[in-house]
Every structure is written in C-alpha cells, then in structure tokens.
Amino acid sequence: MMTAATNDASLKRRYALAEAKRAYNILKQETKQKLIEVAQTFNWKITHTKPDRKNAPYTTSGDLTIHFTNYLKNTGNLRETKWKLVNRTMQQGEVQLTKDEAARLLSEEIRTHVEKKLDTKIEFTLPQTVNERLEKLKNLYLSRKGKIRQEEMPKETKIEAFPPCITKLYKDAQAGRHISHIGRFALTSFLVNSGMPVENIIECFRPASDYSERMTRYQVEHIAGGRGSRTKYIPPKCDTLRTHGVCPGMDEICQRNVRHPLAYYRRKLKTLKTQTPDTAASHEKETTPITRA
C-alpha cells in the first residue's frame, strides 16, 4: 500500500523486482511438485517431463515442460542467449526447463504480477502516522536514487556502448576538433557517470588547440562533484541535445523510446552482455580502461 501510494514508477519497479528476487530464492529450494502448484496459480500449462523412449535425449534436457506461450511471456526481459526459444528443446509446443529455470521464470511472472498490483490509486485518506512514514520512504528513495543508478553501472567505461551523440563528441575531442560548450558538458558529465577516471577525461581534451590543463581540470572536477557545490552532474536529456544540434542522428536503440544518453548506455550494456565471445572480442580494442599513448 505504501509503495503504491508513492506514485513513483521507478520505486514500484524496484519493489516488484525485490519481491521477485525473494520469491526466486525461495522457489528454487522447493520440490518440482511445489513449483508446478505455484505455476498453476498463474494458469501455466506445466508438467513433469515425460519419458520418451523413442527420443531419449529429449528426456535429459529438463525436469519440467511448459507451454511455449507461458515461456515467451516470461522471457522478454531475460537477455542471456540461453533463454532464446531457438536455443531451447521443444516438442509439440512444450519447452523443457530445469527446476531452477522454472523458478526463474516464475519469479518473472511474480514481478509482473506485483507491478500490476502496484498500478493502482489510493482512493482513501491515509492516517497521519502512515503519511509520515510514506514521506520518509520517498525521501529515502530520492536520496538513494542516484547511487542506485551508479551502482548499476559497470566499473569500467565501455566505449562500444556509447550512444551516437557521445561517440561523435568523444571522437571529436580525440581529434582536437571544436566542441560547443553544451557538447563539452554533455561529454564530460557522461564520461564521469560512466565511471571513467577524472585523469582520463582530462586527457581526452588535450588535443584541442585551446587546451588548458588548469582550466580543463577545474571544469572536469567541478562536473564530477569534486569542486564547488560538490554536486555530480548528469548529461542533458536527448531532447536538449537535439535542440542544440549535438545529436548526429538516432540509431535503432535511440528509437526505442530512449530519452537520455545514460539510459541508452545502460540498455546497450545489456545488449552487449548477450553477445557471443567472438562478437565481443571484436570490440576488445575499444574497451577501457582508457589511456592515451
């Protein structure tokens, strides 16, 4: 009730995710029969894997089978290649799963279920004591929001995950080309939030004809929260960058309702995790730690 009353979509998603993780840790310790009983409360078509003497290998790739519609419904947010339907054993519309995999898909079902339960309006007045707790909850989440996003970022900056605007700005800086004020701010604040060390960011701007290490260091450290108000700045939104002519054009990820360079970066990182080792190796030269010769 308190989570629903916050009217904060991101807080609701995190609450649902936490409940899903808790459920998964419990479900994977249950028996196959208990998993079937829980899954059936969500109207899953699920059974024990049936022995098939004519097709012996079919019986060895999973403990349970579920209908492919239930499978597809709960794998949309799972990025690992093993969850792609083409990589699963399926016969007559039934997909085989291990017990742990079934628990994982059930946790996705639970996450969706909780999110829907939270998508409701509180149409009655909450008691004062509850309202006071609610305000504390909202303030606590707001204070943690930036830190939570930063914790989700990888420890090393990955250039291959940069959005088109930052890729162009980064290349322009490396080549010593002129960059507008808002472009320099967008690039610096993005690199700061991607985890690149301040010293490396300063080095990015060294090729510029008007480079001043003292001024550049001051500006980078200020944006990183090391000077002045001690506020760590984030890049402008995509709409702002387009208005100022910083956007060079959208790619496929940009067109998926991405509104911020950091949101693009997080989404692209998830995509890169699903690549095969051979594909990932092709980007190895562009992966930080970033240093200059």
Tell me what you see in this structure:
With 293 residues, this protein is mostly helical. The chain has two domains: 2-118, no CATH class; 159-275, no CATH class. 51% of the residues lie in helices and 4% in strands. It contains 13 helices and four strands. It has helices spanning 2-5, 9-27, 32-40, 68-73, 99-118, 128-152, 164-174, 181-193, 198-204, 213-223, 238-243, 261-273, 277-281; strands at 46-48, 64-67, 90-91, 94-97. A four-stranded antiparallel beta sheet has the order 1-2-4-3. A hairpin with a 2-residue loop joins strand 3 and strand 4 (94-97). Helix 9 (198-204) crosses helix 10. The chain is globular and about 75 Å long. The model is unreliable at 56-60 and 279-293 (pLDDT under 50).
Any descriptors?
single chain; mainly alpha; 293 residues; four-stranded antiparallel sheet; 13 helices; 2 domains; 4% strand
Task: Report a brief summary of the structure.
This protein is mainly α.
The coarse silhouette is globular
On the 0-100 scale, what is the average pLDDT?
83
- DSSP summary: helix tally: 13
Low-confidence stretches: 56-60, 279-293
The order of strands across the largest sheet is 1-2-4-3
Secondary-structure-based class equals: mainly alpha
Amino-to-carboxy terminus distance: 56 Å
E-strand count: 4
* Tally of distinct domains: 2
Estimate percent helicity.
40-55%
Question: Topology as H/E string?
Answer: HHHEEHEEHHHHHHHHH
Q: Approximately what portion of the residues adopt beta-strand conformation? A: under 5%
The biggest sheet, with number of strands, parallel, antiparallel or mixed sense and barrel status, is: 4 strands, antiparallel
Radius of gyration, Cα only, in angstroms?
24 Å
